[in-house]
């Protein structure tokens, strides 16, 4: 589990709501039992992702993502949780990584796959962070000055999670408000550069894009959650 959100969940004003634990002051909620009914990221999940490829919404979303990245950096980039590799195929000098074995095999065949994280100073996690139980598995590779680009579902209120299409037990492990996500990222040493709602304009529902720069190295990050409250 994420080390900061674990602290949030231990605070006295965090409350249980069936399968979720809500941390309203922090703007974060999470699945209480993360091992329960976990979605398998295999061939079926990859095929589900493939259904979006080439659709008007997917094309507009990729264009918005490429535009966001281009405002801050050029050159080599690693797309983590790349799925079919659609974004990496559209943006030059972009490589891909995925824990889904069928996806990895396809990405390798197209010479897109790499797990050489240290070779990169710019990373994207499009529709990924809400799925990842311990994000330090990725953040530990992002040194001071690295750029991070993210898209996630964003909730106006934690109380609206269950009414949203983005409430997906066993798949989405974490849920954030906009401010909650920005503060949580700051705990991990990332400074906000921009928030964009271009994916909503492209036809998606309640999805925000974020651009960050890492201002603390993974080893030097001793920032506490109180410092960004």
Strand and helix layout:
Blueprint: H1 3-9, E1 15-17, E2 20-23, E3 28-31, H2 43-50, H3 56-70, E4 77-80, H4 86-90, E5 94-97, H5 101-109, E6 122-126, H6 136-139, E7 147-153, E8 174-176, H7 178-187, E9 190-196, H8 198-201, E10 207-214
Parallel strand pairs: 4-5, 4-6, 6-7
Antiparallel strand pairs: 1-2, 2-3, 3-8, 7-10, 9-10
Report what the structure shows.
The chain is of the alpha/beta class and 229 residues long. It is 27% helix and 21% strand. The strands form two sheets. A six-stranded mixed beta sheet has the order 5-4-6-7-10-9, sandwiched between helices. Strands 1-2-3-8 form a four-stranded antiparallel beta sheet. A hairpin with a 4-residue loop joins β2 and β3 (28-31). Mean pLDDT is 93; it is low at 219-224.
Q: Return the average pLDDT rounded to an integer.
A: 93
Largest sheet: 6 strands, mixed
Query: Distance between termini?
Result: 20 Å
The count of DSSP E runs of length 2 or more, i.e. the number of strands, is: 10
Task: Tell me the overall shape.
Answer: globular
Alpha-beta content class: alpha/beta
Q: Which regions have little confidence, pLDDT < 50, spanning 5+ residues?
A: 219-224
Kindly estimate the percentage of residues that lie in beta strands according to DSSP.
Answer: 15-25%
Strand order of the largest sheet: 5-4-6-7-10-9
Rg over CA atoms, rounded to whole Å, is: 17 Å
> What is the H-and-E element order?
HEEEHHEHEHEHEEHEHE
């Amino acid at each position: 589990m994420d080390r900061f959100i674990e602290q949030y969940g231990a605070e006295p004003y965090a409350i249980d709501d069936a399968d979720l634990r809500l941390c309203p002051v922090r703007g974060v909620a999470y699945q209480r039992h993360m091992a329960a009914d976990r979605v398998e990221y295999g061939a079926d999940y990859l095929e589900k992702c493939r259904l979006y490829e080439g659709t008007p919404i997917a094309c507009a979303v990729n264009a918005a993502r490429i535009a966001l990245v281009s405002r801050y950096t050029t050159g080599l980039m690693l797309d983590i949780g790349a799925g079919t590799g659609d974004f990496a195929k559209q943006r030059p000098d972009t490589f891909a990584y995925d824990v889904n074995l069928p996806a990895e095999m396809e990405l390798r065949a197209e010479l897109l796959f790499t797990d050489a994280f240290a070779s990169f100073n710019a990373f994207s996690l499009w529709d990924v962070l809400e799925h990842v139980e311990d994000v330090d598995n990725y953040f530990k590779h992002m040194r001071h000055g690295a750029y991070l680009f993210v898209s996630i579902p964003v909730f106006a209120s934690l109380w609206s999670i269950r009414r949203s299409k983005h409430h997906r037990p066993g798949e989405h492990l974490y849920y954030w408000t906009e401010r909650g996500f920005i503060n949580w990222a700051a705990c991990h040493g990332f400074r906000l550069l921009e928030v964009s709602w271009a994916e909503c304009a492209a036809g998606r529902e309640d999805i925000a894009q974020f651009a960050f720069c890492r201002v603390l190295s993974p080893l030097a990050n001793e920032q506490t959650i109180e410092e960004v409250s």
